[in-house]
Amino acid sequence: MEEVSVLHMSSGDGESSYANNSSSHEIVIRKSLQVLVDTIEATANHDIFFNECFKIADLGCSSGKNTLSITFAIVDMIHKTCSKYNRRTPQFQVYLNDLFGNDFNNIFKLLPNFYANLKKEKGEDFSPCFVSAVPGSFYDRIFPDKSLHLVYSSSSIHWLSQVPEGLENNKSNIYMAKTSPPNVFQAYKNQYYTDFTKFLQLRSKEIVCGGGMVLTFNCRSRANPTSDDCCSAWELLAIVLVDMVKEGLIPQTKLNSFNIPFYSPCEEEVMNVIENEGSFFLDKLSDFQVNWDPHDTDYASLNDSVELSDAHGETYAKVKRAVVEPMLASHFGSSIIEMVFKKYAKYVSEHLVRSKTRSFNIVISLTRK
Questions:
Q1: pLDDT tens digits for 142-153?
Q2: Rounded CA gap, 247 and 243, in Å?
Q3: Lower CB count within 10 Å: N or C terminus of the chain?
Q4: Longest dimension (CA), the chain
Q5: Which strands sit side by side in the sheet containing 91-98, from one edge to the other?
């Protein structure tokens, strides 16, 4: 699997698209906003705020309304901070970055409305905001030296640059699982350390001294790499694929060679990489949880009716499909997709009856030294 070409969210604006199944990611964004406000305030104290043009990069921007909603929020935060310091709001250059297969056209269609809303809320004389797309992997250089003032990324850097090597014995699993051999956990950890270190090194070249970076990503609540908030969603998907092998719908060899290029670090691992890489001050690290089904607000109860349980399972299956369908279709073929997620919704429903699992996320604020 060539990650750079198939690792992207489901495109378009149809029923199974990421654009229509990203409400849980919207919640992640909302929960990280205060850290973003604090980071922008701290950046202003370095006086880099008040240049002619303030340059922002959203790494792993994906597509849909979330992309431009966070852009609007950042511009608004900077405008308010400038007003607080009695300074003129600068012009804005916003770079939207994702891999080459990302549906940038979906974002472009939303831009006229974005610009109209900006003028409506801020006035015709508000500083210009220029939005452009910059395709490419954030595990490579994507911007010139010292060209960015603020980097933002949400729900992206838990994706690795590649599937770790040496997973041949992780048979019938597609990620780290309770039945995975010890070398699998080490391989994933090593790939994460390599990738996140490189990510920080590259950004340290692209961000001006005193510039800020806010990163929100999937994590795990404990050091144990098989904690439920880290692995259970992937284990359920693996069970579906095993079922389909038994039914003769996919070959065992195909399943054995499929692993997800994803890693949910624990907080200690995140801090270790930042400290060892050394280019950034870690200003803040906080964590929060998000329900698998963002519409299921009664997470204290395990007494859902069958209908409610099925609805929660179907909602989460749509969320997961919007994220992993391109990878599954590339590896197994598109003909199995409908059946995969029909089965997956069933397994998720049964799981949520037993355990109201949440995803664990962290948000970190960094300042370039």
A1: 999 999 999 999
A2: 6
A3: C
A4: 68
A5: 129-135, 91-98, 53-59, 148-154, 207-219, 358-368, 280-291
